[in-house]
Amino acid sequence: MSSIKSIAIVGGTHGNELTGIHLIQSLEKSHVTQFADTFDFTYVIANQPAVARNIRFVDVDLNRQFTIDNLASTDTSFGESNIAKMLNQQLGPKQHSKTDLVIDIHNTTAAMGATLILLEDSPFYRNMGGYLKAHMPSANILLEDEISYLEHPYLCTIGQRGIMLELGAQPQGVSRMDVFLQCTEMLEHILAYCDLYNQNTQPQQPEFTAFRLLDVVKFPLDEDNQVAGLVHESLLDRDYDKVEVGAPIFRMFDGTEVFHTGDQAIYPHFINEAAYKASKVAFASALKFKW
Ligand SMILES: [Zn+2]
After folding, report:
1. Rounded Cα distance, 59 and 71, in Å
2. How far does residue 1's CA lie from ligand 1's centre (Å)?
């Protein structure tokens, strides 16, 4: 069992998600965490050109550039692919990383509260989720293990281990203190868990409720490929609430409803996420499970 010594805390991977940026600026100005002497911290503002312009990215989404193929490519045409390679040198390299844990902080415009996104079903991550849920019951644990940890294109995967903190609802380019405080609380619990993990004093967590990514659901489109309806009014601001088979999920502009036709209830999240507008994604769906 390898211990957690080096931790990178990353913000500004998306330049208009301000909580992580402000958290890092505050940590650097010595508003230190109680674990300042426990770990070797590196603080990183990942996409500085995008942060300077208060936009998600300049050329391409930085948080999709960390596949093994992308990091190995010699293509230098996109600003973000160069930033990815630089960060991979600084914190990684992916698969053989010098950083034990990368914590990448994001905001969402969806009402997802404090969500911990984990990418692998293993005891380290499972117990982290259980520990967070036990100490911060309002937090949501979202497991995205539809592909392996290393196959994910996310920045955090350049660490030996990597997680994402997703906090919302917060508009793009805006920074809310309630969201900042939630992020701080979440981070302290995660660091406390890592400290206990290192001391081997963290007991196996009892079963807890979590969500597992199922799919992304696109807006209904018309024959001209234009959005022809919106997320149903009954789903708004209700991320992680249960949607039964047969319940409405969209209302078309002509007033008719579109119903959830799957074979099981789903738990929508990232509902109306602003960053997904270009890809016409209305929300992501998850299944609820006991982990
Ligand atoms: Zn983000």
Report:
1. 16
2. 31
Predicted pLDDT of residue 201: 83
Report residue 31's pLDDT band, with 50, 70 and 90 as the boundaries: low
Q: Confidence band (pLDDT; 50, 70, 90) for 280?
A: very high
Q: Pairing between strand 248-252 and 257-259?
A: antiparallel
196 Cα to the center of ligand 1, angstroms: 29
Q: Are residues 22 and 109 in the same domain?
A: yes
Query: Which residues are near ligand 1, the ion (C-beta closer than 5 Å)?
Result: 14, 17, 106
Burial class (CB in 10 A: 0-12, 13-18, 19+), 134: middle
Domain encompassing residue 264:
212-290
Residues 72 and 180 placed together within one structural domain of the fold: yes
- If you measure from the C-alpha of residue 223 to the centroid of ligand 1, how many angstroms do you get, rounded to a whole number? 31
Q: 255 or 75: whose pLDDT is higher?
A: 255
Is the pTM for the entire model greater than 0.85? yes
Mean pLDDT of 42-66: 97
My answer on whether omega of the bond before 169 falls inside 30° of 0, hence cis, is yes
Is residue 92 domain-resident? yes
CATH of the domain at 266: 2.20.25.160
